[in-house]
Amino acid sequence: MIGSAVKTDAQKKTARQLREWALMTLGTLLLASGVYFFKFPNNFSTGGVSGLSVILGHYFPSITPGDFVMVINVALLLIGFAVFGRSFGIRTCYCSLLMSVFIWVMERAVPLSAPMTSQPLMELIFAVGLPAVGSAILFNLDASSGGTDIVAMLLRKFTTLNIGNALMASDCIITVMACVAFGMETGLFSILGLVIKSVMVDMVLENINIHKCFHIITAHPELVEPFITQTLHRGATELHGEGAYTHEGRTVLLTVVNRREAVLLRRHVKKVDPGAFLLITNTGEIIGKGFRGVN
């Protein structure tokens, strides 16, 4: 029985790891697709390694932006390993190299000499939106595509600069360089893309992590608790309270579930205890068993 339980735990851990690596691959593919199919053909430069590569590709036309992405990412990874050694994140290395490979393959498999549409604003949305979703997936798994994230790690180690402000300043400089290289129209689209990018990753990341926190004030916890623990397979904390007006005893059940489970739980509580009082709030950062581990 013990061996079987250990084997089951090991299988669950392996399945979870495979799922995480599959999601990292998907996130990296979305990121690379947005960069190659929408950012490169339109010369959008919204900062970061891909933005710098667009500008370098303009001044050195014999080298493609995808090649510049690969060279810069590999160089930053080598610097990261030299400075941080084994503590340097293997997931960041995987995603950074995979992104470079994806773009390199796309350049040769699906060569583009011009934008796919005549609607630059629509292409800008995809040029920012796809990488934003991809980056949010990676950040949610404690990974990143490298590039400026490695620069941030170096700045944090060797300077006292505010990292967020330093990276935003570098992105702004790269975006202004796009105005010089490609003209004001492309430059203004790039500035707009930088503004959208600055809020979109956080917005997507928050929505990925959103769960529902329930405070259920009930006189019949025996009708609610089994549904939480046995049907939804979630934990719950039982608190004991007293009504301020009636001074009658009440049980407060505290639990956190995902959106699908929230619908089922709300429906069940109102069915078995119509007099129950529910407080339902959104929460985006949950650390503990069944959610995220403590790092």
Describe this protein with a few key phrases.
295 residues; alpha+beta; Alpha-Beta Plaits; 2 domains; 66% helix; elongated
Q: How would you describe this structure to a colleague?
A:
The protein is an alpha+beta fold. The protein folds into 2 domains: 2-208, no CATH class; 210-283, 2-Layer Sandwich (Alpha-Beta Plaits), CATH 3.30.70.120. 66% of the residues lie in helices and 10% in strands. It contains 10 helices and 4 strands, in the order ααααααααβαββαβ. A 4-stranded antiparallel sheet has the order 2-3-1-4. A hairpin with a 6-residue loop joins β2 (237-242) and β3. α1 runs antiparallel to α5 (120-140), α2 runs parallel beside α7 and α9 runs antiparallel to α10. The chain is elongated. The two termini are 31 Å apart. The relative contact order is 0.11. The model has no long low-confidence stretch (mean pLDDT 84).
Chain-wise SSE layout:
Layout: H1 2-42, H2 48-59, H3 65-84, H4 90-109, H5 120-140, H6 148-158, H7 163-182, H8 184-209, E1 211-218, H9 221-231, E2 237-242, E3 249-257, H10 259-272, E4 277-283
Helix pairs in contact: 1-4, 1-5, 2-3, 2-7, 3-4, 3-6, 5-8, 6-7, 7-8, 9-10
